[in-house]
Amino acid sequence: MIGLRPKSQILSYRYLGSLQTSSASRGDLRKTHGVRILNKQTNFVTCPIYYATSTPHIGHIHSSVIGDFYHRWNKINDVPSKFSIGTDEHGQKIIRSAAQQGYDHPELLVNNISDLYRRTFKKFSISVASLDDAIYMRTTNPEHHEAAQKLWSRLRSKGHIRIKNYEGWYSTPDESFVGNKEIVEKDGKHFSSVNGHQLEWISEENYIFDFEPFLSEIEAWIEKAVTPDVAKVLIDELKERRNTGNTSLSISRPRKRVPWGVAVPDDPNHTMYVWFEALINYLTAAGYARHENALDFWPPQLQVLGIDIARFHCIYWPAMLLAADLPLPKKVFVHGHWTRNGMKMSKSLDNFVTPKELLELVGNQSDAVRWFCLKHATLKNVDFQDELLRIQSDSDLANKIANLLSRTTSKNLNPSGAYPTLFPDSLLDRPDGEKYLIETVQELPEVYAKFVDQGQLPSAMNCVIRAVEEGLQFMTNEKIFKLDRDIKSERMQKDSAIHACYELLRVSAILLQPAIPQISSKILNRLGIPLENRFYEDAEDSFSGMDGDQFERVGRLLGPNQGHLFKTSALVKKEIEQMAKFEAQELARYDKKHPTRTAPENEIKNTGRKQKERIKQKARAKMAEIKAARDAKKPLDRRQGDMSAEELNMDLHDPNFRAPDFPNRK
Ligand code: MSP
């Protein structure tokens, strides 16, 4: 006999207990030399800051969707949350990129690109606004300069920074010196064995950060905070470093070579190494520039990053925090990479999967891309295929979730247009003898939460889909449509089945809000669920009519029909074709009526091939303009934010470029 499950008093959030900042103990406070945390309850989720060199691609969307997922997860658990994301805007890579793209000054490039990233993130419902408790971080922001300089001074005053001559092979695309083991020589040139980037020999006086004293603490932290597969590799690296004495990091660059950066305090001849400075963005977000000894919130509950930047986040970054006596992040979520046709995506291959391409594939339904990323949020690399994206979203979002909602809310099936009554004894049995859906739906929040808290996002997404499948089977196998409302027992069975499916959809949609916010909100609107009942604890409370009490949702009117919850790729294709057909007909009609006049462009909605051709033509013209301006050495006249993705994808690589001495900010 299945009874009512008492509403849990403790949020599923208990699983995240170990990640919560509020768990900072007295010991932590003593160790942090009295750094006060103003909002101890606030959980802080971070995403990497992206190089503002060129346009975003699927990899950037991927890290961001995962971070945004956890931020939204905090929110539906009613836990205060802050989220940081943004752009990494200094360094040699930026200087070169700006010059290659015909910019007069790196600042013009980073303004454009940062703006482009922010707009792109918005398209994918990734939180970037302060209203959503997001901090959009830009490292050119003076507050970040101040934070970086404060941390530098703190490490210097504690004796962790010294100056020395430093030389080695340097990879500009990675903004990093490369160890001997990772160098290959070919035709007298040197390349990174990890990613093939060409290296340059650099010998210069730099400031050095010594992290030898922290190796053991870092190792212990990695074991706790990082998933075992990645932890093993990192710990091996730590051991190797300990054995070879490779335990320092060069953290400055001569200002002459890299003028575009944060000035080293009290030394006008140096700027900070961009990685050292970029990592500090997380502290900037927490208010480090304003109150060095009283942070708004800290440490991060979760830091999301790709495997390629694990070394920076899991070795150098904890070393910097330990050197500054600051608490370390609670957890690190490391994900793998998207490849295309089995190849790494790169500028030279020009094989990036762009946000535009992604959105076109799914008819602008960005939730499909979020879903796709989350279904592949593992450590493994995944090869991107158009079909995979289409099939997964068609199958899960359209054929399962949307299908169940439209079937069960149709006037035919539920003429009352309200949440029907559940008659526990009339709810049909599954072939295994258990009642349909009750157990599945009641267990779903806990199962889902466990996966989420363990970082197993694909399993979390799949467990909801399995539950929805049970709903669909229920409707089909038991032929709920055929039950006759004029026969009392069948009417009771029908209403109970609909009620159970609504409970399933309600609980699923609450849980999926962090994953597919637009679709979830449409489901909850359609079911008439008030905003204040869309929290995790509301998902924990399902089938409360089972114990015979008046069930609060029963009899409540459904919300308005939300139109298509999700359009299949076939439908999207059909709509585009219809639009193109309409456009062609309209042009033909116009030509016939006005044989001597050309149709004004904006009268006709451009779609498909024609639109693409027009964009390409524009991009070609712009490229020619930029090239001509470069040849004539004339600065281009640009307004902020007016760059199209196409022009930013240009690759005018010039490895010999050296930047002029830009005036620095500070
Ligand atoms: N600016 C540094 C990060 C500094 S954080 C203090 C950087 N930027 S990046 O733009 O190159 O990459 C940022 C994120 O995008 C990383 O998490 C990286 O793993 C992710 N991706 C970049 N390419 C990717 C794929 N092809 N696939 C999945 N994610 C990848 O590194």
From TrEMBL:
Residues of the Methionyl/Leucyl tRNA synthetase domain: 44-408
SUPFAM superfamilies the UniProt entry points to: Anticodon-binding domain of a subclass of class I aminoacyl-tRNA synthetases, Nucleotidylyl transferase
UniProt superkingdom: Eukaryota
Provenance organism: Oikopleura dioica (Tunicate)
Keywords: Aminoacyl-tRNA synthetase, ATP-binding, Ligase, Nucleotide-binding, Protein biosynthesis
EC number: 6.1.1.10
Ranges of Basic and acidic residues composition bias in the record: 622-641
Protein name per the record: Methionine--tRNA ligase, mitochondrial
Annotated family: Belongs to the class-I aminoacyl-tRNA synthetase family.
UniProt region (Disordered), positions on chain: 595-666
Keyword ATP-binding annotated: yes
Stored Pfam families: tRNA-synt_1g (PF09334)
InterPro entries: Met-tRNA_synth, Met-tRNA_synth_2, Methionyl/Leucyl_tRNA_Synth, MetRS_core, Rossmann-like_a/b/a_fold, tRNAsynth_Ia_anticodon-bd
PANTHER family linked: METHIONINE--TRNA LIGASE, MITOCHONDRIAL (PTHR43326:SF1), METHIONYL-TRNA SYNTHETASE (PTHR43326)
Basic residues bias locations: 607-621
Keyword RNA-binding included in the entry's annotation: no
